Amino acid sequence: MYISDTLLKNKKILLGITGSISAYKSAELVRLFVKAGAQVRVVMSEASKKFITPLTMETLTQNRVLDIESESWADDNNHISIVKWADLYVIAPCSANTIAKLANALADNLLTQCALADPKIKLIAPAANTNMLNNPITKASLKMLAIANYEIVDTQVKELACKTEGDGALAEPINIFWRASRVLLREEFWMDRRVIVTGGGTIEKIDDVRYISNFSSGKMASSLATALYLKGADVNLIATRFESDIPENIHLIDVESSSEMYEYLTDSIRIAKKGKMSKPSIMHSDAMALIQKEPYLFMAAAVSDYIPAFAQNAKMKKSDIGERWELLLKQNIDILNNINKEGLKTVAFKAEMDTKTATKNASNIIDTKSVDAVCLNILQNSQSFGTVDNEIDFITASNISKLPRTDKLSLSFHILDMAKEL
């Protein structure tokens, strides 16, 4: 997944590092934040310096590290001012010892003092031995933090520093990065809204070793799903291909054929329409009600127009086929036209090559297939697939907006801004 250097532009992140062997991964996390355009400062516990040096963090962030030796009340390098500066405080790794301190509002070092002084949402990524993590007091502490303005990035199961395999390893830096970015970028409109995205070119079986497909890479769908996740949506991505390193909290459904995609899409729409309720909103002075947010569908998949009329369950031999092979195809189901779109905001995607008729053909979909908008992608040739960047015409019944050529994740944010107005 390509991440632009403006994703976190103007965002300010304070990273806390505790005394855990996983502290070395903090360097990679800082690199991801800085590469995405964020300003990063670091606060280190004395125990963390056994595993990684302040010099490393200062080199990566180009900012002075906050520790016992550097704390100053002559500027903002102190535990009160630095949390006012930060948009988000991330503690990664967060040791079992620090988890217990945070849950009991202890502030016996600069890192925990920063946490106690920060009223905003904070993000922690635990790292501990399996038994330490599963200790009832640690588990109770995590539950306490979860209801006290902390969001928790789950640990992972792998070989730990103690040479045993179990739960307790620090989440991968890219997953901590995505969770932090979600906290910084989410919007009320998309938060807790169920959204379905389809992507990739469908794979239509000829026999057990051959198939019909197309050049669609699925990158646009993965980028859209990632943008939606970062905005706070509950995302379901149904695709034949996925980009690497997309957020792990996106619900992925790996499909191949158009019939399989249609089946899962139908089920996903039915579930989405049941609704994931938003937070209570005041309806009148003495009553509260739950409001269901209208779900969205972004149909970015390249579904085969034709499929083999008689798919075989074994490999057809060349000797049986002969010198010429006339493969009989039949018209495929039009998924977009056959799904139930009532109560669903639908954005279709249309790829065209003829610039003279492209806009007209895309606009026709709004009426013929009852969608709310169409994203028109004008292709040059087969090399247009799988690129890092793209440009889109966002078409509604009343307007055509030309979105600028940019990387696909940044373009996805532009598409979401347009989709909010539907």
Distance between the termini: 28 Å
**What's the number of helices?**
14
Question: Tell me, what is the CATH class of the largest domain?
Answer: Alpha Beta
Q: How can the largest sheet be summarized?
A: 8 strands, mixed
Question: Strand order across the biggest sheet?
Answer: 12-11-8-15-18-19-20-21
Radius of gyration: 25 Å
CATH architecture of the largest domain: 3-Layer(aba) Sandwich
Overall 3D form: elongated
Number of strands: 21
Helix content: 25-40%
Number of domains as seen in the coordinates:
2
Tell me the structural class: alpha/beta
| CATH homologous superfamily descriptor of the largest domain | CoaB-like
Low-confidence stretches: 276-290
Strand content: 15-25%
CATH topology of the largest domain: Rossmann fold
Q: What is the mean predicted local confidence, pLDDT?
A: 91
Short description:
With 422 residues, the protein is an alpha/beta fold.
What does this structure look like?
31% of the residues lie in helices and 24% in strands. With 422 residues, the protein is of the alpha/beta class. The protein has two domains: 12-184, 3-Layer(aba) Sandwich (Rossmann fold); 187-419, 3-Layer(aba) Sandwich (Rossmann fold), CATH 3.40.50.10300. A hairpin with a 5-residue loop joins strand 9 (204-205) and strand 10 (211-212).
